[in-house]
Design a protein that fits this description.
With 180 residues, this protein is α/β, with parallel strands linked by helices. The chain is 24% helix and 21% strand. The protein contains 5 helices and 9 strands.
Length: 180
Amino acid sequence: MKNHRLKRFVLNGGIVLYPTESCFGIGCDPSNFLSIQKIKLLKKRNIKKNFLIIGSDVIQFKKYLQSLNNAQLKELYSKWPGPHTWVVDAKENCVPWLLSKNKKIAVRIPNFNICQALNQSINMPIISTSANVSGKRPIKNYRQACRFANSHVKLIKGRIGNQKKPSTIQDFATKKILRK
Protein backbone atom coordinates (compact mmCIF):
# COMPACT_ATOMS: atom_id res chain seq x y z
CA MET A 1 0.00 0.00 0.00
CA LYS A 2 1.35 3.41 -0.97
CA ASN A 3 2.01 5.88 1.83
CA HIS A 4 1.99 9.30 0.18
CA ARG A 5 2.32 11.16 3.48
CA LEU A 6 5.46 9.23 4.45
CA LYS A 7 6.92 9.69 0.95
CA ARG A 8 6.36 13.48 1.17
CA PHE A 9 7.99 13.46 4.62
CA VAL A 10 11.07 11.66 3.27
CA LEU A 11 11.27 13.78 0.11
CA ASN A 12 11.06 16.93 2.25
CA GLY A 13 14.13 15.93 4.26
CA GLY A 14 12.56 13.64 6.85
CA ILE A 15 14.46 10.88 8.63
CA VAL A 16 12.95 7.43 9.29
CA LEU A 17 13.97 4.95 11.98
CA TYR A 18 12.90 1.37 11.22
CA PRO A 19 13.54 -2.27 12.18
CA THR A 20 15.94 -4.25 9.96
CA GLU A 21 17.16 -7.84 9.98
CA SER A 22 19.74 -7.17 12.73
CA CYS A 23 19.00 -3.81 14.41
CA PHE A 24 17.08 -0.59 13.97
CA GLY A 25 18.16 1.32 10.90
CA ILE A 26 18.01 4.99 10.10
CA GLY A 27 17.39 6.33 6.64
CA CYS A 28 16.42 9.19 4.38
CA ASP A 29 16.18 10.21 0.73
CA PRO A 30 19.62 9.36 -0.75
CA SER A 31 19.43 12.43 -3.02
CA ASN A 32 18.87 14.88 -0.17
CA PHE A 33 22.23 16.16 1.06
CA LEU A 34 20.73 17.94 4.09
CA SER A 35 19.01 14.74 5.23
CA ILE A 36 22.31 12.87 4.96
CA GLN A 37 23.93 15.58 7.09
CA LYS A 38 21.17 15.22 9.71
CA ILE A 39 21.89 11.48 9.97
CA LYS A 40 25.63 12.13 10.27
CA LEU A 41 24.98 14.60 13.11
CA LEU A 42 22.54 12.27 14.86
CA LYS A 43 25.03 9.40 14.66
CA LYS A 44 28.11 11.60 15.24
CA ARG A 45 29.46 9.85 12.15
CA ASN A 46 32.66 10.67 10.28
CA ILE A 47 31.65 12.90 7.38
CA LYS A 48 33.88 10.93 4.98
CA LYS A 49 32.16 7.59 5.67
CA ASN A 50 29.69 6.47 2.99
CA PHE A 51 26.21 5.00 3.28
CA LEU A 52 24.44 2.20 1.48
CA ILE A 53 20.95 2.41 0.06
CA ILE A 54 18.18 -0.17 0.26
CA GLY A 55 15.24 -0.68 -2.08
CA SER A 56 12.51 -3.20 -2.74
CA ASP A 57 13.56 -3.75 -6.36
CA VAL A 58 16.60 -2.94 -8.52
CA ILE A 59 14.39 -0.53 -10.50
CA GLN A 60 14.45 1.78 -7.45
CA PHE A 61 18.24 2.09 -7.88
CA LYS A 62 17.97 3.10 -11.56
CA LYS A 63 18.87 6.74 -10.93
CA TYR A 64 22.09 5.74 -9.11
CA LEU A 65 23.48 2.71 -10.99
CA GLN A 66 25.04 2.22 -14.39
CA SER A 67 22.94 0.06 -16.69
CA LEU A 68 23.12 -3.63 -15.95
CA ASN A 69 22.61 -6.46 -18.42
CA ASN A 70 20.50 -9.55 -17.70
CA ALA A 71 23.50 -11.64 -16.59
CA GLN A 72 24.54 -8.93 -14.12
CA LEU A 73 21.00 -8.61 -12.79
CA LYS A 74 20.83 -12.37 -12.36
CA GLU A 75 24.07 -12.25 -10.35
CA LEU A 76 22.78 -9.43 -8.11
CA TYR A 77 19.58 -11.37 -7.49
CA SER A 78 21.55 -14.51 -6.63
CA LYS A 79 22.04 -12.84 -3.21
CA TRP A 80 18.87 -10.71 -3.17
CA PRO A 81 16.63 -10.24 -1.45
CA GLY A 82 18.77 -10.86 1.57
CA PRO A 83 21.47 -9.55 3.92
CA HIS A 84 23.95 -8.95 1.09
CA THR A 85 25.17 -5.52 -0.03
CA TRP A 86 26.71 -5.16 -3.47
CA VAL A 87 29.16 -2.35 -4.27
CA VAL A 88 28.54 -1.52 -7.92
CA ASP A 89 29.52 1.10 -10.49
CA ALA A 90 27.51 4.29 -10.09
CA LYS A 91 26.05 6.43 -12.85
CA GLU A 92 28.29 9.25 -13.94
CA ASN A 93 25.80 11.85 -12.66
CA CYS A 94 25.18 10.11 -9.31
CA VAL A 95 25.15 12.45 -6.32
CA PRO A 96 28.74 12.62 -5.02
CA TRP A 97 27.94 12.04 -1.33
CA LEU A 98 26.92 8.44 -2.09
CA LEU A 99 30.08 7.54 -3.99
CA SER A 100 33.19 5.75 -2.82
CA LYS A 101 36.61 6.97 -3.96
CA ASN A 102 36.40 4.66 -6.97
CA LYS A 103 32.94 5.93 -8.05
CA LYS A 104 30.94 3.00 -6.71
CA ILE A 105 27.79 2.82 -4.65
CA ALA A 106 26.55 0.24 -2.12
CA VAL A 107 23.04 -1.18 -2.67
CA ARG A 108 20.93 -3.88 -1.06
CA ILE A 109 17.48 -5.40 -1.36
CA PRO A 110 16.59 -6.74 2.09
CA ASN A 111 14.39 -9.78 2.57
CA PHE A 112 13.03 -8.36 5.82
CA ASN A 113 9.30 -7.63 5.49
CA ILE A 114 9.37 -4.27 7.29
CA CYS A 115 12.16 -2.91 5.06
CA GLN A 116 10.45 -4.26 1.94
CA ALA A 117 7.12 -2.71 2.98
CA LEU A 118 8.78 0.63 3.77
CA ASN A 119 10.50 0.87 0.38
CA GLN A 120 7.38 -0.31 -1.46
CA SER A 121 5.09 2.09 0.39
CA ILE A 122 7.16 5.14 -0.57
CA ASN A 123 8.24 3.66 -3.93
CA MET A 124 11.85 4.76 -3.57
CA PRO A 125 15.15 3.65 -2.06
CA ILE A 126 16.46 5.07 1.21
CA ILE A 127 19.78 5.40 2.95
CA SER A 128 20.28 2.57 5.42
CA THR A 129 22.66 2.64 8.34
CA SER A 130 22.46 1.34 11.88
CA ALA A 131 20.64 3.57 14.34
CA ASN A 132 23.26 4.34 16.95
CA VAL A 133 25.95 6.82 17.81
CA SER A 134 29.04 5.79 15.81
CA GLY A 135 31.20 3.37 17.75
CA LYS A 136 28.34 2.42 20.10
CA ARG A 137 26.12 -0.66 19.97
CA PRO A 138 23.30 -0.63 17.42
CA ILE A 139 19.78 -0.18 18.74
CA LYS A 140 18.03 -3.54 19.09
CA ASN A 141 14.58 -2.77 20.52
CA TYR A 142 11.70 -0.35 20.12
CA ARG A 143 12.16 1.32 23.52
CA GLN A 144 15.80 2.19 22.73
CA ALA A 145 14.67 3.40 19.30
CA CYS A 146 12.15 5.75 20.94
CA ARG A 147 14.91 7.25 23.08
CA PHE A 148 17.24 7.63 20.08
CA ALA A 149 14.64 9.27 17.85
CA ASN A 150 13.88 12.94 18.25
CA SER A 151 10.71 14.76 17.25
CA HIS A 152 11.99 15.19 13.69
CA VAL A 153 12.39 11.44 13.11
CA LYS A 154 9.51 9.17 12.01
CA LEU A 155 9.71 5.90 13.92
CA ILE A 156 8.36 2.80 12.14
CA LYS A 157 7.02 0.30 14.68
CA GLY A 158 8.12 -3.30 14.73
CA ARG A 159 10.71 -5.79 15.92
CA ILE A 160 14.11 -6.45 14.42
CA GLY A 161 14.86 -9.75 12.70
CA ASN A 162 17.05 -12.63 13.87
CA GLN A 163 20.22 -11.69 11.98
CA LYS A 164 23.12 -11.37 14.45
CA LYS A 165 25.44 -9.25 12.29
CA PRO A 166 25.14 -6.60 9.57
CA SER A 167 24.93 -7.53 5.90
CA THR A 168 27.89 -8.88 3.97
CA ILE A 169 29.38 -6.26 1.65
CA GLN A 170 30.88 -7.44 -1.64
CA ASP A 171 32.44 -5.62 -4.59
CA PHE A 172 30.44 -6.63 -7.65
CA ALA A 173 33.29 -6.27 -10.16
CA THR A 174 36.10 -7.95 -8.20
CA LYS A 175 33.91 -10.28 -6.07
CA LYS A 176 36.08 -9.29 -3.10
CA ILE A 177 34.26 -9.48 0.26
CA LEU A 178 34.63 -6.07 1.96
CA ARG A 179 32.73 -7.00 5.15
CA LYS A 180 31.68 -10.46 6.27
